Structure formats: C-alpha cells, structure tokens
Amino acid sequence: MRTLPSPHHFQLSITMSQLPNLELLSTEDRVIQAIQAIKSNASLTQRQAAHRYDIHESTLRNRRAGKASRRDTQPNRSKLQRHEEEAIIQYIRKLDARGFAPTLNYVREMANQLLATRSGGQVGENWTYRLVRRRPEIKSQVTRQRDHQRVLCSDPDIIRPWFNLVHNVKAKYGILDEDVYNFNKTSF
Predict the structure, then answer these.
(1) C-alpha–C-alpha distance, residues 64 and 113, integer Å
(2) In the chain, where are the structural domains located?
(3) Separation of alpha carbons 158 and 152, rounded Å
(4) Residue 163 burial (C-beta neighbours within 10 Å; 0-12, 13-18, 19+)
(5) Which residues make Cβ contacts (< 8 Å) with residue 34, sequence separation at least 6?
(6) Residues 74 and 59 sit within 8 Å (Cβ to Cβ)
(7) How far from 169 is each of 85, 87, 185, CA to CA, in Å?
(8) Exposure pattern of 137-153 as b/e (b: 16+ CB <10 Å)?
C-alpha cells in the first residue's frame, strides 16, 4: 500500500523545482533572488532562504540591512580616493582614444603624482595590476601582441581603423591638415 507524501513535503518539492539552477548564478544574484523570495513569501524565514539559495545567512542579513557588497565598496587600505582613481581611468581612456595606450609603469606614476600633491606617499608595486583586475573597462596589453599586430598591418582592412582614428582625433581637437607633418618625408 502506497502512502501519499505529506503536504509539507509536496510544497517543498514544488518550491525547489521552481528555483533556477543555482550553479549558474553568481553569489550576488542568489542574494538578490533570496531577498525577493523573502519579500514575496511572508512565511519564508531568512534562514530558510539562505539555505535554499546556498548563501551565508549573515550575507543575506547584511544585504537586507542595506550593507553594500564588498565588491562594490572602496578597499579599506586604498591610498587613492575614488574620484582620483576615476580621474586616472578617464585619462587612460583619453590616451587610448589617441592611440597611446599607457604602460603599467606610466599608470603607477600617474597615481604617485596624484598622491604627491597631498603628501600621500606612493602606491604599491602591484597597485596597477590590481587596478586592471578591479576595473574591467581597462585592460593591460602586452608589447609582444602589439608587435605581432604591426606585422599584420600590410592588410588595408587592418590599417583602415588607424586612419579612422587619426581622422576622428583631428576632427575632435580641430587639427588642420597643414598642422600635420609626415616625419618620414622631412628626415626628422
């Protein structure tokens, strides 16, 4: 004789089957979904939601209290302030738009110059590597890859973006054609 599952067991299996595949979601996405589940289901406790969404209960408690995730906060021991770091990022973008991507040492020197204006010391030796890892919009480029790209520049389709970039920079900054010189022709 078969027995029917208890109503509590049946409800739990439906709820668990409705959950998305948690392995595909990041921790932060699981936290957001757990908070939404608690808001939509008054009988769901914080502990149950943390267990269902495979997150720490303290993490869930902190997010519900309004505490930002560690990923979204300024590092505790950061020498540069957020606006200084943003200024460096903007300057890197401007240099890159002109075709002069700065090296890691150059970026480090920029940060040290900013710190020197307020007697803040110097950034650490690995600061630039951590900046690149922390800020996905800038990426470090290895010199060897640039040299390989120079070899490929015999193809007009590869060269054309460079000339488009030069044209755009001339238009943006109002550079006239008579102010552009070909150094190869003038024996510079």
Answers:
(1) 40
(2) 7-71, 82-141, 149-179
(3) 7
(4) exposed
(5) 49, 50, 52, 53, 55, 60
(6) no
(7) 25, 21, 22
(8) ebeeeeeeeeeeeeeee
63-122 per-position pLDDT tens digit: 899 888 776 676 666 788 888 888 998 888 888 777 777 888 888 999 999 999 887 788
Inter-residue contact 162 to 99 (CB < 8 Å): yes
Q: Are 39 and 46 in contact (CB under 8 A)?
A: no
What is the per-residue DSSP string for 21-47?
Answer: -GGGS-HHHHHHHHHHHHHH-TT--HH
pLDDT given at position 18: 56
Per-residue model confidence as pLDDT tens digits over 153-175: 667 787 788 889 989 999 999 99
The pTM of this model reads 0.46
